[in-house]
Design goal:
With 379 residues, the chain is α/β, with parallel strands linked by helices. The protein folds into two domains: 169 residues, Nucleotidyltransferase, domain 5 (2-Layer Sandwich), CATH 3.30.420; 182 residues, 2-Layer Sandwich (Nucleotidyltransferase, domain 5). Helices cover 51% and strands 13% of the residues. It is built from 17 helices and eleven strands. It has a six-stranded mixed β-sheet, sandwiched between helices. Strand 1 and strand 2 form a beta hairpin. Helix 5 packs across helix 6 and helix 11 crosses helix 14. The protein is globular. The two termini are 32 Å apart.
């Protein structure tokens, strides 16, 4: 994405302070936004800290038969009921953003199938759901990180590793790919271990995992380097690193006496050391190495659900650091989601008045329909 485009996107998010695209006062006072992610839905409103969430495993639904069907009813119910559960005022203008799983549906099932789902959701809730481009998601993530972290965000870029996608974004640059934690773990099983999911257990990853990961991710790493350049400082802000990689590294560093890890960062060398310690171990053996995470308030979540991802997450981050020439990764925990970004962005609220036109453009232009101009829609 060009520097001009990135700056334009970020300016679209500064609606409360920028002269361009300022929302009308009535809309700005009463906006509700939904973040429809790969693992659930979150709602929030402008000017209120109140939120509510519901867990919906869209990937389990999709990977079962390569369609979204069983989760649509739960989606409709959540859009109807979450604002009241959060205590948000009634009668606000509401919009929803769909991200990695929805882009996957658009690419895999085709535009007609995706549009049919969006129409069903809109007809039953009155809420327009927009399939957001990857770079818009990156801009929303950076916007939320700036809000949540303030002066604690000391790097020009953030790493936001979600379940279905990954973004590295800043004020002037953004890059993303459909390789979130769960998607990468599935790809690792198929491409590195040669075992189809969901049968595959990624651990032990094996002695060649670092080299094989670099080979498998080479196209995405090349794209990231072309978009971002090399050796730019990055802060990881999302749960897989904040609650998984970093505390695992801290625990291992204390136990095996290696350096390069503190409360807010880790080095590439420390990450490589940790991978070497864990690469030949099964998930139960990894829990044993971590002493069951007992007596460690910052411990990772040592359950079978999460421990399967510890080493593959490390491999993904290590490949990124190598590709971008990073010796150090900063870490800052924050509740990053896309609600602040979509509420601040004027575009979804403009598109809400022309939703049928948006769907027609989604059919003709794909995911970039969101970035076209709703003012050019026929009345």
């Amino acid at each position: 994405m060009s520097r001009f485009t990135a700056l334009w996107m970020l300016s679209c998010l500064c609606l409360s302070v920028c002269a361009n695209g300022i929302a009308r006062a009535d809309e700005a006072r009463c906006r509700v936004g939904f973040d429809v992610g790969s693992s659930g839905i979150r709602v929030g409103s402008q000017g209120s800290p109140a939120t509510a969430t519901v867990s919906i495993d869209y990937f389990a639904d999709f990977w079962d038969d390569m369609r979204l069907d069983r989760t649509i009813g739960a989606t409709i119910e959540a859009l109807k009921t979450l604002p009241a559960k959060a205590g948000l005022p009634a009668g606000c203008i509401a919009v929803a953003g769909g991200y990695s799983i929805w882009r996957l549906i658009l690419d895999h099932d085709g535009r007609a199938e995706a549009i049919a789902l969006l129409l069903q959701i809109h007809d039953e809730t009155g809420i327009p759901l927009f399939i957001m481009p990857q770079d818009v998601e990156g801009a929303y993530g950076y916007y939320a990180a700036r809000q949540a972290l303030g002066d604690r965000l000391r790097t020009p870029l953030i790493l936001d590793l979600g379940g279905g996608s990954m973004q590295i974004a800043g004020a002037e640059l953004s890059w993303g790919t459909a390789l979130g934690q769960r998607v990468w773990r599935r790809l690792f099983c198929e491409a590195v271990k040669g075992v189809e999911a969901p049968i595959c257990r990624p651990n032990p990853v094996g002695p060649t995992a670092v080299a094989r990961t670099a080979q498998v991710l080479a196209p995405q790493i090349a794209e990231a380097k072309a978009a971002l350049g090399a050796s730019r400082a990055v802060t990881a802000v999302s749960t897989p690193v904040v609650k998984g990689v970093l505390p695992t590294l801290k625990y291992l560093a204390a136990k095996y006496r290696f350096s390069g890890v503190d409360d807010h960062s880790f080095s590439r060398a420390a990450l490589e050391t940790a991978v070497a310690l864990l690469r030949d171990k099964t998930s139960p053996e990894i829990i044993t190495v971590l002493d069951g995470c007992r007596e460690n308030t910052d411990a990772p979540i040592c359950t079978s659900r999460f421990v399967d991802s510890f080493v593959t997450d490390m491999l993904l981050v290590l490949a990124l650091m190598d590709g971008l020439g990073l010796d150090q990764m900063e870490v800052a925990g924050a509740q990053i989601n896309n609600v602040p970004g979509i509420i601040a962005d004027q575009r979804p609220f403009d598109w809400a008045k022309h939703y049928r036109c948006y769907l027609a453009r989604l059919n003709s232009q794909g995911v970039d329909a969101f970035k076209s101009d709703p003012a050019t829609c026929p009345e």
